[in-house]
Structure formats: structure tokens, C-alpha cells
What we know:
Elements lengths: L1 H18 L1 E9 L10 H12 L3 E7 L7 H10 L6 E2 L4 E6 L3 E8 L6 E10 L2 E10 L27 H9 L3 H17 L3 E7 L26 H8 L3 E2 H5 L36 E5 L5 E9 L3 E4 L2 E4 L6 E2 L11 E8 L1
Parallel strand pairs: 1-2, 7-8, 11-14
Antiparallel strand pairs: 1-15, 2-4, 3-4, 5-6, 6-7, 8-10, 9-10, 11-15, 12-13
Helix pairs in contact: 5-6
GO molecular function, one term: endonuclease activity
InterPro entries: Endo/exonu/phosph_ase_sf (IPR036691), Endo/exonuclease/phosphatase (IPR005135)
Keywords: Endonuclease, Hydrolase, Nuclease, Signal
Amino acid sequence: xxKWTLPMLLLLxxxxxxxxxxxxxxxxxxxxxxxxxxxxxxxIADEIIHTGADVVTFSEVRNYHQTxxxxxxxxxxxxxxxxFYSEYSYDSGILSAYPLESFATISPEKDDHGSVYKAxxxxxxxxxxxxxxxxxxxxxxxxxxxxxxxxxxxxxxAPVTQVDSVLADNRASQRDEEIALFLSDARQxxxxxxxxxxxxxFNEPSHRDWTAATKDLFDHxxxxxxxxxxxxxxxxxxxDAYRRRYPNPVTHPGFTFPAGNTAVPVSKLAWAPDxxxxxxxxxxxxxxxxxxxxxxAVIVGPRASVVYGAIKEETSKDPFMAPKGVxxxxxxxxxxxxxxx
Length: 341
């Protein structure tokens, strides 16, 4: 009997490893559906294939010229040999390699102030509620300490470094209301026993990035700011995938905006040309569950960013997946790999 014990254990272990299902989630701001960058739409499809994403959460879905972006991107991916599923949405969107069991609007887009949608997918027997969020871009208060207005992006006489003033302006956006709607709906999904994953362009940085360690970096101008959206998510038990994987915001700042895209003039990329306005504003969060294991996280896109109005190569320790060809957007994407058990 003893001689079979070790082989049997190894066989059992191998079976357990094989039973884990990889789920790759890509958060992808596509900059007006890739229309700003020559060849941008085809590049979006190419990068989805390149990353091997199973689920994509889109920001800046526009449905130009009475078309449906979800149908066009599915068709483009089909010509590349991949089948995806989606439903009509505007502003943000969801694409899944697994059929959608349901799709719902959580926070509808109105007057370009952002949106949140949900798709429930069944990943080989496990229900996963996937949310996509493109939150309000106005009152982008992370520009205030850098000396720029938060909604007009005009240069201010001086940086705003009073944290209470910065947060008051931040709360004047609709981001906190939008994330509250997400949290309310997500609690219902969790109660059903579903896994929950959120991907989005929050248009707001993380409190994990504006800390004592970074207060004198990246033109934070001495500020330590508990940003509302990520604070709310963390207080409700959600985990920031990238910051969980790479907890040090100095060595791994994880900037996703503004990307150093050489396919367009830098003037189209720089919102605060006299400042270092790099921030991590594209996120993937998840609700911890023993069935869901975080395996990896990587930034997809050019290693370069825009700093003081010029494109410069990043020197951080962040992991990057270089684009296959043309990069279609002014953001960098985020690819997170989970294992479902």
C-alpha cells in the first residue's frame, strides 16, 4: 500500500491543478473606439487576441454612425478565429468568451457622466458577475495638486494642496454615486454565491497610490489623499488586483494614463503639459472568495508615458506586455489573470 501513496498524492495534486480554470480579464479604455489613432479599431481587436483575454471591460464605447461597437468588435474577432459574446451598451461595455446568462444596466450613461453595466457569465459551472465602469471624467481632482483645473484643465495660479478642498471637488463628480450603485448591486450577487469582478476606468486614482511614500513624487506636491472610489471599494471588502500583486506604489506605480502613444501628436495626449500627471486610473477589483485566486497582473501597452508634455520611457519595475503593433489609445490597459477553483 505504501508504494502507491506518493503516486496517488501526485496524481491528486495534478488533477487539482488541472481543475483550476484560468480567467484573463482585460480592462481596456479604447479612446473613442480607436478612432483617434490610425488603424485603431483593428488594433483593438489585435490586442484582445494578443492578450488572450477571456473577458474585456471596455471604456469609451460610442456606437458611432448608428453602429453597434459590440457587434463590430465581435465580427472583427471572429475573423481572427475567436468567438465572443456581448450586448448593446453605451460608454462602457463587456465582451466575454463565455456566453452571457444576463446583462443589466447598473448606472446608465447621461450627459457623458459615466456608466456601469453588469454581465453574469457561467465559467464552466461557476457564475461570475462581471461589471464594467467608466466613471465620470469631470471634477478630476487629481489635477488640482498639480496646478490644473479639474474640469477645464486650464492652468491654475497655484496648486491646490488642501486635502479637504481636493476631496470636496472630487465628491462633486458623480463617481461616488456610480460606485455606490455598483456596490449595492454587487452585494446582491455576492449573496447569491456569485463571484464578482469589476473592471473600469475610474477617472480617479487610488488612495493606495497617494500615500506618504509618494507625497513628494509625481507632482503630488506633498499631499496624501484618501480617494473616494477606491476607499469605498476597499471598505466594502473589495481587492485591488494590481496593488495586491504589487503593493509598493513607488517601485510599481502602475500608471495607466497618459500613455506615451507615438502614433499621435503628444498634444493630444497631454492634459496637463506643465505637470507630471501620471496616474493609475484603470483598475480591476474583485471580491475575495476561496474559489477565486489572483495569479498575475500586467500592464498592456507602451512602456512610455507622457511627463511634462513629453513622451518618456518608464523606469519603474512594473511588468509590461508590449503592444503587438499600433497602440489604439491614450490609456494603457490592465490584464489580470485569475484561477477559478
